Recover the amino acids of this structure.
């Protein structure tokens, strides 16, 4: 079962090279890779033969600077609250 849903906040577990990135803002064109731990938002979930996620990365002002399609082993869902046992 897929535990990540659309609009979930995730962090990348591996660097993402520039050839896998769609860079949005011209000021970020020099990026060689996104380092591990960048925080993004899941925009789409592709549930075809291989499950993957379209993730948007934005700065602290909410300006999107990059997007990437990532595999489940490349993302970590982030949580703001502690799930309580039933």
């Amino acid at each position: 079962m897929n535990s990540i849903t659309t609009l979930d906040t995730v962090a990348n577990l591996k660097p993402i090279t520039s050839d896998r990135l769609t860079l949005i803002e011209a000021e970020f064109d020099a990026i060689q890779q996104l380092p591990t731990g960048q925080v993004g938002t899941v925009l789409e979930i592709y549930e075809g033969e291989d499950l993957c996620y379209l993730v948007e990365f934005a700065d602290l002002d909410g300006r999107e600077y990059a997007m990437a399609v990532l595999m489940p082993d490349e993302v970590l869902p982030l949580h703001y609250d502690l799930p309580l046992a039933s």
